[in-house]
Structures are given as C-alpha cells and as structure tokens.
Task: structure prediction
Amino acid sequence: LGHDVHFQEKKIALLEAGPRKEYDPMPDGYSNRVSSISPGSATLLSSFGAWEHVCSLRLKPFRRMQVWDACSEAMIVFEKEDLGDMGYIVENDVIMCALTRQLDAVADRVEVFYGSRAVGYTWPLLSHSCDTSPWLQIELADGRRLQTKLLIGADGHNSIVRKEAEIKNIEHRYDQSAVVATLHLSEATDNNVAWQRFLPTGPIALLPLSDTASSLVWSTSHEHAAELLAMDEESFVDSINSAFWSNVNHSDFIDTTGAMFRSAITLLKPSGTAVRQLPPSVAKVDLESRAVFPLGMGHATEYVQHRVALIGDAAHRVHPLAGQGVNLGFGDIVCLAHHLSTAAFNGSDLGSLKHLLKFETERQRHNVSLIAATDVLKRLYSTSLAPLVLLRTWGLQATNALPPIKVRISFY
Amino acid sequence: LFRLPVKRLFSASHSSVDSAEIKKFQLLAHKWWDEEGEYSALHSMNDIRVPFIRDTLLSMSNNYNLGSPLSGVKILDVGCGGGLLSEPLGRLGASVTGIDPLEDNIRTADQHKSFDPVLAKRIQYKSSSLEEIVEESMETFDVIVASEVVEHVADLEMFIKCCSQVLKPEGSLFITTINKTQLSYVLGIVVAEKIMGIVPDGTHEWEKFVPPEELERLLESSGFSVKTVNGMLYNPLSGSWSWTESTSVNYALHAVKSEAQGRSSPTEALSEVESEQPSATAGTAA
Result:
C-alpha cells in the first residue's frame, strides 16, 4: 500500500513484534523455513520492487512437480507447457529482507514500529454519535496510542485482532506435525523438481534450494515427528530416503488394478501416463536446522468488520501439503490492496464496510474451495485402506491424464 | 461592475430557498451519517458522483498527482446537507466550502469532520443560502457542485445565475437531479418513497423535478456551456448506482461557465443587451 500511487497522502503504521531483519551479508547456510512462491505471488512482489531484491539474494525456481502415492504406482506430474518456471522456493528470511528494503523506500508514508505489541483496542461504534470518536484506538505496550480508520490483522493463525474483534474462527487441529530441515543431496543435480509423496502417515516433500541442497517438509504423526527429531543424522537421512524410495506399502491387489487402469488410460490417451522418476537421494542434514511445528486448519467466519480486515493466516490456515498457505495470503493482499486503492481514489473512508465486504466476498469465494479441497486431500491420503487407496489411485491417474484439470490446479 | 444586477436580484423578494423544503429535512438532520439509514442511497451515490467529478476535473487539468487529484481546487458544495459529498472531495485534496440553509445540517457536518484532522482544515461549512454568499464570493470557486439540490429550490433561474456569479470563468458546475417524466413519478416517488422507502416519504415533489432539456436551456442562457449529460440508475437490490443511457429518472450534468462574463450569451440575447444598454454602459464607465 505504501507504494500505491493513490496512497501518497495517507499514513500507514506497521506493528511488528519482531526485530528488524537485515541480511548483510547473507549467511551461507539455508534457513529451514521456506515457502513455495507461485508466479502470481511473484508478480505481486515485483509490483512494488521486492522481487528484484529476492532475486538478488537467493531463490530456486522449479519447473516440475511430481506427486505420488506410497500405496500404489499412481502419480501426477505438473509442469508448464513452455517449460517455464512453475514456482519458486524462497527462504522466508529472504522475503522478509526484501520487504524490509522496500518498506525503507516509503518510510515517509509507512512507519514501522519494530518490537511493538498492541495491548488494547477501543472499537468505534458503527453509527456515529456525538461524542465518541469514530476512529479505532490502539494502545501499545509502551504506552503509546494510535488511532486509525482501518486496522488490518495479519497476525497469524492465533490472531489477536481476530479474537478482539470477536470474529468466530472454525478451527481444527490435525493430529500431525511438520518436520522441517535443510538437506544436502548425495550428488549435485539440476534440482528443478519439487517432490511430494503421500505416505499413510502424511506427505513428505522435498523442495529444491540449490543444486546441492533441498528443504524438507515432512508432515507426520506427532509421535513420529518427535522420533525424527531425536534421531541421529544417519538414521534421519535413512528415514527420508526410504520414505521416498521404498515400496513397502504397496499391495499386489492395488498394483494390479492400478496397472490395469493405467493400460486403459494409455489406450484412450496415449500421452496420459508418464514415467515415474525418483527424487535425488539425501546424504546429509544440517542438524541444527531440524525443527517441528504442529499443523492445523482454520477459517474465520468473517474476514471483515467495520474498520477491520483480516488477511493471511489470521483469516485462514491450511495444511502445507499443497504449498499454498502463503500464496493464499498474497492473494488476499492483491485483492485488499486493489479495493483500498479504488476507495482511496474515490475519497472514501478507508474503514467503510462497503468496499471491505467486496474484498471478503471475493476472497472467501476463492479460498474456501481451496481450503476444503486441501482438507479433503489430507484426509483421503491419511489412510492405507484399500478402497480409499484405489479411489485416490484412479483419481490421481485420471487427473494426470486430463490436461485441463491439471492446468487449473497448478494455476489456482 | 456587477452591483446593478445583484441589487436587482435582491430586490425581488423571494430567494431560491423554499421554507417548506427546509422543514422536510429538519427531522432527519442527525441521520446523515448512518450508512444504512435513510440516506443510504446518497452514501452509495458517492460511488459514481465522486469519480464523475474527479475524472472530469482531472481530464481538464494538468494535475497528475494521483494521491491528491483535486489539490488546489476550490469547490462550493451547495446544499451540502451533512457533508456526505464534501468529505470525499476534501479527501481528494480539494478545499471545500459547504453551504446549507439548515443549521442543524451544518452542525452535523461540522461535528463529523471535526474528528479528522485533515478534513477539519480542508472543509468549511456555513449555514447560508446561495444568494447570501454571492456578494462576498464573486468568482471565487473553481467548481460548484449542486447534487440532489435543484429539485428542491424555489427559483431555479436565480439559483443558476448565482452559481454563475460565484464561479470563476471556465469553472465547472456539476448538477445531479431528477427528471420530470411519468417514469420518474412512478419510480422516483411511488416506488422510492411510498413503497420501498429508499427515500424518506415526502422528500420530493414531482412538480419540482427538472427535465434535462429545461436545465440545459436555463444554463445556456445564463452563460454556461453544457458538456455532459448522463443518466443514472439506482438498483435497490444491490443498493448501488450505475450509469445508464436513459435520463428518464436520475441524471448528472456537467457545464462550464463561458469565458465571456455576463449573464447571457451574446448571440442569444441581443435584444436584452440593447434594452439594458444604458445601465451596462453606466456600469463599464464606472
């Protein structure tokens, strides 16, 4: 918003609990928190000059994504027809650094309060009466008071803004945690493919960071996650490799029917099946980079209220299996910024529900289907029961053979 | 000198303000800022009338500062009510003077803008009729906005002449109002007031509606050149306004005051000029 031409005369404050993040010089080791950035999100970041900084720091584009099942041979491959970049794996710290630089560029309009925390909110009444101020008042931990026409809550899935605004949240904790780590591959490779395999305990994903390093995101049961964290390096690496390579979960029945289905597809659509490739093998892991965090799903019943808007994880929280969490948030930003920019150019009161509701409708329509689909996929793939495996096997194989659906999924 | 014409207007004892109309608005003076209340249709009208004013002025000027597109523009909002239109214009950078004959309206408007430090300086409200400010505000304003007002005034011709006097040459006049047609009676009064309550009952009188042709005629004969006339349509289901081809019900108009000073355009009123010859020469000689 600070870079928006219609916001030149406006004043924006950003409350950030953490310290200022600078990257000078860049550490050699990769951070263990990475995000898969979609092309749409990259466009957003480049619209205000942050993407250039990301490119000048470091990122890894990937061209292909292979997703397959541990219980069968079923597999789906995503790639762009023109062999362009499907997405980018970027460390979260790199994005933060790029954003910090661009915030500095509009310091006259955007004031960032590092290390601050809001401790009290005074909500304005909807219909304006004589003495009460129509502004939203915020009290900070250090005693300072701010007043604003619009408060945007971007404070994560435990959003305090959401709680204070008394917006109900539908949430569900998964019985899974995600283990992350930075891995080093056995041998250098082009490493421009993202790999994800659905194990009965949860999906394991390998996201490329460089020609020799990849990031691990392994969603699994809490107990298994704790075990993984406690293992020594060799056992940890072995677990990862066998998770990707072993066929222990296959059953003959499923393999046979799967093969039959595949031949049927080959008859109907010769190009509809692809050869399953194997991901690179892992040799080492940065032991200090191992971490675990619990997973859950959430969706706020309302994204907006008078003078309040929620974006990102504060509004919706999703399982990492689709790599979409942060991209949904970026999508929220594009939409909200567009509506606020138009409102500013119309001279409207920025906290007015009229345009905030337009944002809510647009995003809820978009987000709800993706969040629901991700949840369904998570549940569907959390089992090794034959009927469900068959269902998802055929489903996956069929989807792989149908370009229109695949294209829609990858560009969502 | 313009003393003579002004004096002549004042000596006619009626003004453009209709006291019966004032009473209608008195009751609702504090309801202006309830976005979902009686004035909700006016709130949503901002979504088309503000861009209309903004874009017309931008296209006529060299100002490319999109953060403050109306900066440096002096606007008079006649019949400003609670300031519903003055505030967005102020936010876009204009210096706005809002006048309304009803004191309670001005009080509401003043109070609402007082909470915003930026608007409090950019907007000035005065409880006054248009004629009352003419003397001290000759050729002061770049733009006059008379939105949803001309259907309430008693003497439209005088109203327009006063607009011409306080407007700078080549200044813009924006009017939004309601046409006088069968359709506007059905939709504007029967449906809007009696059936759906979009507008408070009794707000409008069909007799006072102004057809665009008549408005254009009055404007042209007062030294204005009408540039644009657009029909407006209100959708009660969505609560929003849109532009439309037909001007049968609501419409918006943009006119520009000609450079040549004076109340009549030279070609149209030759006979008028001849008969006024003595006073005109007396004026210029002085």
